[in-house]
Give the backbone structure.
Amino acid sequence: MLKADLHLHAKEDVRDTVKYTVKELIDHMASLGFNVMALTFHDQSYRSEEMNKYAASKGITIIPAIERTIEKTHVLIYNLDPKKAESIKTFEDLKKIKSKDILITAPHPFFFLHSVGKFLDRKIEFFDALEYSSFYQALFNRNKLGAKAAKKYNLPLVGGTDAHFLNQIGYTYTLVDSKNNIPSIIKAIKSNKIQLVTRPLPFSLFFKNLFTLLVLSPLKFNKRRK
């Protein structure tokens, strides 16, 4: 089984406030025994052959990905050509790129910001999987709604960190029954040959992350736009 986290941010993500670099993230993932990771920057399809080789030297496969904003909703798209990924603006565009080689996931589907939420029933045809996000507490867990939806529509439930801090990684992730190459990993996820591993974030880390997502990251993004 491969240990995978398919929702990660780093300093090179111009939209978010993150202190660690991609290289530092790879080092940390390796220290925790991860075999698979995806850099899901906001509306930015990050690619680096240097970092791919560096990750491979540590036994980690990087799946190319993007967290694309489509009709005000965040959508995770994996293994798509960067130019195509950054050109998708509507769900109809998303439908055109669906294939056996592409994985499309609804991140944090029932959270309050940038999530498909109550529209999931109408948008379910566009997704191959739903995400179980690490961003929850024992007494506050919007993932439960996503878990019910995954069961209802017989879709895989993929664990992802949505990491903005290194110490956030490792609480929620996915075990994938697959060979360690991109086509096999995507096929295994779509076939639901996965296992969700999850536990709540500590209280302090949960609110630290909340502050970053709601205050610091929007400030950084607006400053860059000026």
User: Anything to note?
Assistant: The chain has one domain: 2-225. Residues 2-225 form a domain with the TIM Barrel fold (CATH 3.20.20.140).
